[in-house]
Amino acid sequence: MKLAVLLFCLSSLLPAQDGLTGKWDVTATPEKGKPIKLDADLKQQGPELSGSVNSTMGSGPVKNAVVGNPDVTFQFMIGKYTFDVKAAMEGEQMKGTFTGPRMKGNFLAMRAVTAPSATPTEGVEVGTLAGAQYRIDIPKNFNGSLLLYCHGYSPAPGKFDKDKPANDLMKGFLELGYAVAQSGYSTGGWAVKEGMEETEALRKFFVSKYGKPKRTYVTGHSMGGTITLALAETHPASYDAALQLCGPIGPTLSMFQRKLFDTLVVYDYYFPGIIGTPVAITDDLLTDPLDFVVRLQKEMTAYPDRMEAFQKWSGFLSDQEAAQTVAFFAAIQKELIKRAGGNAFDNRNTLYQGSTNDTMLNRGVKRYGGDTSAVDYLKKYYTPAAKPAQPILTLHTTYDPLVPAWSVNTYGDLLRLNGGDANYVQRYVSRNGHCSFTPAEVLNAFKDLVSWKESGNKPEAGEQK
Questions:
Q1: Which of 38, 48, 260, 316 is least surrounded by CB atoms within 10 angstroms?
Q2: What is the pTM of this model?
Q3: Where in the chain is the domain with CATH 3.40.50.1820?
């Protein structure tokens, strides 16, 4: 099976249309098998393609290649085994399929960067890349591996001060010997699209400047957890493993519908007009956000019977937590409407449960339809494929008012529907709050992830210490 993967990988490299000459990094994945990494050296002269693939099983030549535009077919042999490959070039990636003796699979190959312009030295680098500020920290004890960190939801793009020391968590990663790179994203708000694109651009920048790391990991909190998962799923050849922290990792459209939008709808039922409406959030929110939270809380405490009913339905632990969360959800919804071109949510068929009087609640809540363009945007950023090719470890608290545990469980459900969770482990910390982990808990989870990647021994699910 390994041979097949290798062959197949090489194949992937071959089909590029022009300038295929050079080295390639390949991840080959046979059906029901684990991804295998290898490298290949190719040489193209007009329509002729030759080369070899290097693997733990040895090396073998490329044969009988037919280079088209954009398709290519060829054969590759290792020992007595011959494999037929069909592939196509997509930008700087090669994607295709292979068939061989009692096996078949997929491949993904990316052009290797072989000439870094600098050697990593201890220090901090800040700058702007693709419209986003970035920061790269390289420790004195650099172990040759890179960690990309994705930050969470923020109204404004992130900024970095070279003279500001790393926080305790980043210090922990640096002390372990990892270089840490962070993108601030070029926009604020639900910047999953920008976070994916600009974190990947930062990874490529690091590789072009310092060379390819031994290993590349990705992690992030909250919205950054969604970006972490998306990068791990969509760029399996670039990221060796992912540590997803407290992010909404089920389908964003359905998770936001059930938690964010329905919370605004039910709040508006009990306290009409305070937020404007769930599809037209008042501009007062932007004038003074802190004052807006105070007003929400005062309104709730002025009507204790309504507050009790809302808390029973929502599960919020206090009127302060309820006010802060409703204000935060309103801010996200207001930004999403602008970003996506309309309201993405549709509650016309929603049946609300868990209040003090569900009949009156369902009769009284306002009903809204979703705008197609907004629905499509949230589907794209992000709906998990739930077929991870690399190890993913998730960490969540047992009670999170913003991203409830059921939203994290959704990813595991999708995995099981897709045939298994061999590359996924979900853990929890027994604590209330959103992303309320200690640096030690996150670092211990990261160490377990690295051990999993290096040894192949999958860690146990359960409580994270």
A1: 48
A2: 0.78
A3: 123-250+391-463
